[in-house]
Amino acid sequence: MPKRFSMPEIDSSLLLTQTLGDNELTEEVKKCRILLVGAGGIGSEVIKDLLLMGFETIDVIDLDTIDVSNLNRQFLFNRQHVGKSKAEIAAKVAVDHFGHNASVAVKAIHNSIQSSEFDIDFYKSYTLVINALDNRAARSHVNRMCLAAGVPLVESGSEGYMGQVFLIHKTVTQCYECEGPKQDSRTFASCTIRNTPSLPIHCIVWAKHLFAQLFGEVDADNDVSPDNTDPELTTSDNKDDSNGLTSTAKQQSTRDWVKACGYDTKQVFVKLFHTDIEYLLRMDQLWENRTKPKTIDYDRVVANDIEFDAIEGTSSSNGLNGSGEPNPDLKAQKVVANDIEFDAIEGTSSSNGLNGSGEPNPDLKAQKLWSINECLTIFDESIKELMKRLTDFGGNDTFLVWDKDDESALDFVTAVSNLRSFCFHISRKSKFDVKSMAGNIIPAISSTNSIVGGLIVLQTLNILRNNVHKKRNPELTTEEANKALYESCRHVYLRKVGPSAKNLISAYELEKPNPNCMVCSANVPEIEISLSFKKT
Predict the structure, then answer these.
(1) What confidence tens digit (pLDDT) does each residue in 300-341 have?
(2) Where is the sequence biased in composition, kind Polar residues (predicted)?
């Protein structure tokens, strides 16, 4: 980016004091050490806002790399940054353009926040932590670490036009897990869907996007191919493309390419599950801390020479539950050749999946996990059926709409998502599960992230004001100081204005801790384990 946009050298202390009207609060801001977890949609807004507000010491951590699909809503990134670390680029660009003086120090950490190297002492080194994450597991981890370290956590999230910001502090407010297990958000980063899926729902969303690319109303933002314009991927491997699929994809959209090949099942399969996966494998940075995906050989699938790993589709791929005991849902199943067959399932009239009339039981059939060969067969059949339907409806001038109650459309998404899951070592799902999980994806909206980013900074200032209040009143007890913090911060919601919601932004009293919470409650039991190393 041109240097003319860089911030001039200014007297940030004077400007801060004039803005905040409090010398002591100014000093709190300047010496505050912030850990920002996530440099994506919300995180890239927060790091800019913090610097503009006068904060000087920020560490930003993110494992992800920049995808071309991020560029329309994460404005610190440009096309030249595609393939590079989000944390490193966000830190550099933010300092170059919004760093107000030489004291600004923004450190980038390209790593997973769940790495064991980030221990309690790491968290204790910060004044506060800001969460700008998009997945439940990482949020829960940061929540527990901040509680253990006694460090305030500003939690945030956005979903379409809605967002929220709230404080989490031990003994003062509810923690992230006080209300029990959270459902995964229906909003997913495009780069996760296209490049680094880790959950079955990621593969299901990708399969729905593919349906739209092949048969539906095309949305360029929901392309399913890897980004072929990444300058880091102009390798000799790219230039020597034996089947011409990758080079063709550079010039054509997925819809145009599939039309050109006549919706040929083999060519589509090879592109999606072999060529594109090989392309992703050349994006080395993606796999530094992740398991590399694997390609699928079409001919081996046809020959029944490839299969999913043992029994999948549960929380454990070895058929055991969390206690190490045989999973009761799986103990009646066995792996036979290239398929999983049901043996003596209780509650059915037949152990072979047939009803009393000798016909397949439709409920049981929908819950059966398909073999990889079955996925290919159904992939082929559904493509032909959907293509015929598209042609009958008028061809180029019409498009199909995905409907979970449309058997062919559901078959397509189930088969495709399971094939994608195979590539990324993710447990497969039955047709029944796919139907229940395939809700509409909610798009990420840049203006929502911008507003949430501003609200996070305001919440941060409220926490620092409380620190100033404690210093001015050293006689305050811990209980009194916590009460002041509780009253100074709010649970802030952002939502669409409508008949039932007159205000764009609404603030409510923070929730008190749940006394039965197994994470933050004082009643959490302590278990003492004695180990003996004597031989028995």
Answers:
(1) 999 998 888 653 433 333 333 333 333 333 333 333 333 333
(2) 225-236
